[in-house]
Amino acid sequence: MGDGRYLHDSKRAIGATLAKVSSPSSPTSRVIHLHLDAPPKPAEGAPCNGCGLCCAAEPCPVGVLVSRKRVGACDALQWSDNDGRYLCSLVSDPIRVMPWLPTPLAPLLSRLARRWIASATGCDASLVTESG
Q1: Phi, psi at residue 130, to the nearest 5°?
Q2: What is the pLDDT of residues 34-79, one digit of tens each?
Q3: Which residue, among 48, 32, 43, has the nearest Cα to 126 in the 3D structure?
Q4: Predicted model pTM
Q5: Rounded distance, CA 45 to CA 109, Å?
Q6: Quick count: other Cβ atoms within 10 Å of Cβ 74?
Protein backbone atom coordinates (compact mmCIF):
# COMPACT_ATOMS: atom_id res chain seq x y z
CA MET A 1 0.00 0.00 0.00
CA GLY A 2 2.39 2.64 1.13
CA ASP A 3 5.61 2.78 3.01
CA GLY A 4 4.77 5.80 5.16
CA ARG A 5 3.99 5.16 8.80
CA TYR A 6 1.49 7.03 10.88
CA LEU A 7 -0.14 6.52 14.25
CA HIS A 8 -3.87 6.84 13.88
CA ASP A 9 -7.11 5.11 14.72
CA SER A 10 -10.36 6.50 15.99
CA LYS A 11 -10.35 4.10 18.94
CA ARG A 12 -6.65 3.52 19.72
CA ALA A 13 -3.22 4.39 18.36
CA ILE A 14 -1.82 1.79 15.99
CA GLY A 15 0.86 1.68 13.32
CA ALA A 16 -0.72 2.46 9.98
CA THR A 17 0.16 2.56 6.34
CA LEU A 18 -0.66 5.69 4.39
CA ALA A 19 -2.38 5.12 1.08
CA LYS A 20 -3.23 7.97 -1.24
CA VAL A 21 -6.34 6.97 -3.15
CA SER A 22 -8.35 8.31 -6.01
CA SER A 23 -11.09 6.81 -8.11
CA PRO A 24 -12.19 7.29 -11.70
CA SER A 25 -15.30 9.11 -10.48
CA SER A 26 -13.32 11.31 -8.07
CA PRO A 27 -9.79 12.06 -9.33
CA THR A 28 -8.96 14.09 -6.22
CA SER A 29 -6.64 12.03 -4.06
CA ARG A 30 -6.85 11.75 -0.30
CA VAL A 31 -4.96 9.87 2.38
CA ILE A 32 -6.46 6.78 3.98
CA HIS A 33 -4.95 5.40 7.19
CA LEU A 34 -4.74 1.60 7.34
CA HIS A 35 -3.25 -0.89 9.76
CA LEU A 36 0.47 -1.45 9.19
CA ASP A 37 -0.10 -5.18 8.56
CA ALA A 38 -3.04 -4.74 6.17
CA PRO A 39 -2.58 -6.71 2.96
CA PRO A 40 -2.22 -4.75 -0.29
CA LYS A 41 -5.36 -4.03 -2.30
CA PRO A 42 -6.11 -6.86 -4.71
CA ALA A 43 -6.84 -6.22 -8.37
CA GLU A 44 -10.47 -5.51 -9.23
CA GLY A 45 -12.34 -8.81 -9.53
CA ALA A 46 -9.74 -10.72 -7.48
CA PRO A 47 -10.96 -12.29 -4.22
CA CYS A 48 -11.24 -9.91 -1.28
CA ASN A 49 -8.23 -10.20 1.01
CA GLY A 50 -9.43 -7.88 3.78
CA CYS A 51 -7.18 -4.94 2.86
CA GLY A 52 -9.90 -2.58 4.17
CA LEU A 53 -9.20 0.14 1.62
CA CYS A 54 -12.72 0.27 0.18
CA CYS A 55 -14.41 0.49 3.60
CA ALA A 56 -11.82 2.94 4.94
CA ALA A 57 -12.48 5.22 1.95
CA GLU A 58 -16.27 5.21 2.30
CA PRO A 59 -19.02 3.00 3.64
CA CYS A 60 -20.98 0.71 1.32
CA PRO A 61 -24.77 1.24 1.16
CA VAL A 62 -25.45 -0.88 4.25
CA GLY A 63 -22.45 0.74 5.96
CA VAL A 64 -24.06 4.13 5.37
CA LEU A 65 -27.04 2.96 7.42
CA VAL A 66 -24.85 1.67 10.24
CA SER A 67 -22.36 4.56 10.21
CA ARG A 68 -24.94 7.25 9.47
CA LYS A 69 -22.45 8.91 7.10
CA ARG A 70 -21.51 8.72 3.43
CA VAL A 71 -17.91 9.89 3.68
CA GLY A 72 -15.00 8.49 5.67
CA ALA A 73 -14.35 5.08 7.13
CA CYS A 74 -17.28 2.79 7.81
CA ASP A 75 -17.97 2.23 11.51
CA ALA A 76 -18.31 -1.51 10.82
CA LEU A 77 -14.70 -1.76 9.59
CA GLN A 78 -12.75 -3.73 12.18
CA TRP A 79 -9.11 -4.85 12.24
CA SER A 80 -8.57 -8.48 13.26
CA ASP A 81 -5.18 -9.23 14.81
CA ASN A 82 -5.98 -12.95 14.65
CA ASP A 83 -6.73 -12.89 10.91
CA GLY A 84 -4.25 -10.16 9.97
CA ARG A 85 -6.89 -8.36 7.90
CA TYR A 86 -9.92 -6.14 8.11
CA LEU A 87 -13.38 -7.59 8.66
CA CYS A 88 -16.87 -6.20 8.33
CA SER A 89 -18.40 -6.25 11.81
CA LEU A 90 -21.85 -6.64 10.29
CA VAL A 91 -20.65 -10.08 9.20
CA SER A 92 -18.20 -11.02 11.96
CA ASP A 93 -19.74 -9.38 15.04
CA PRO A 94 -23.05 -7.57 14.36
CA ILE A 95 -23.60 -6.81 18.06
CA ARG A 96 -20.43 -4.65 18.05
CA VAL A 97 -21.97 -2.12 15.66
CA MET A 98 -25.60 -2.67 16.63
CA PRO A 99 -25.55 -3.26 20.40
CA TRP A 100 -29.33 -2.88 20.60
CA LEU A 101 -29.82 -5.88 18.27
CA PRO A 102 -31.35 -8.90 20.03
CA THR A 103 -28.60 -11.53 20.24
CA PRO A 104 -30.68 -14.27 18.55
CA LEU A 105 -30.91 -12.06 15.42
CA ALA A 106 -27.13 -11.66 15.06
CA PRO A 107 -26.61 -14.81 12.91
CA LEU A 108 -29.39 -13.74 10.57
CA LEU A 109 -27.96 -10.23 10.22
CA SER A 110 -24.52 -11.73 9.58
CA ARG A 111 -25.89 -13.88 6.72
CA LEU A 112 -27.81 -10.93 5.26
CA ALA A 113 -24.77 -8.66 5.54
CA ARG A 114 -22.69 -11.15 3.53
CA ARG A 115 -25.21 -10.79 0.73
CA TRP A 116 -25.53 -7.00 1.09
CA ILE A 117 -21.79 -6.38 0.93
CA ALA A 118 -21.39 -8.93 -1.89
CA SER A 119 -18.98 -10.99 0.17
CA ALA A 120 -16.93 -13.50 -1.84
CA THR A 121 -17.76 -11.87 -5.20
CA GLY A 122 -14.37 -10.23 -5.67
CA CYS A 123 -12.91 -6.79 -5.15
CA ASP A 124 -15.11 -4.10 -6.64
CA ALA A 125 -13.11 -1.10 -5.41
CA SER A 126 -11.98 0.97 -8.37
CA LEU A 127 -9.60 2.89 -6.14
CA VAL A 128 -6.11 3.70 -7.31
CA THR A 129 -3.43 3.61 -4.63
CA GLU A 130 -0.02 5.19 -4.55
CA SER A 131 2.73 4.93 -1.96
CA GLY A 132 2.63 7.62 0.64
Answers
A1: -140, 150
A2: 898 999 989 989 999 999 998 998 899 999 998 999 888 999 999 9
A3: 43
A4: 0.76
A5: 25
A6: 26
